[in-house]
Amino acid sequence: MDTPLILIKDTTREERIKIVREALWGGCGAECEFCSGCDIRGGGRWESIYQPYIDGEKEIREINAAYAAPLVR
After folding, report:
1. In whole angstroms, what is the distance from residue 5 CA to residue 19 CA?
2. How confident is the model over 17-26, as pLDDT tens digits?
3. DSSP H stretches of helix in 1-73
4. Longest Cα separation, the chain
């Protein structure tokens, strides 16, 4: 089975936007447009959380790890 490529080196900016939107919508079951779920958890809007990935600055796994770290006790 082929796995979808999500690394910055393998994707365009447009593909990364689509990856983030589809992952968040599929993950929590809500559309992000009117959602404040990420903000409630202290991360801010999804656009700001994942902007470094979209801009090609940080891999998505790095962002997810940093976002989850304060929740681990």
Report:
1. 10
2. 888 888 776 5
3. 13-28, 37-40, 46-49, 51-54, 60-68
4. 36
In the chain, what are the domain boundaries? 8-71
pTM, two decimal places: 0.67
CA separation for the pair 35, 57 (Å, rounded): 25
Q: Are 49 and 42 in contact (CB under 8 A)?
A: no
> How far, in Å, CA of 34 to CA of 39, rounded?
11
Tens-digit pLDDT profile for residues 17-72: 888 888 776 555 555 555 555 555 555 666 778 899 999 999 999 988 887 766 55
Q: Residue 70: CB partners within 8 Å, gap ≥ 6?
A: 42
Closest CA to 53 of 20, 26, 24, 28: 20
Q: What's the token pair of residue 44?
A: 């801010």
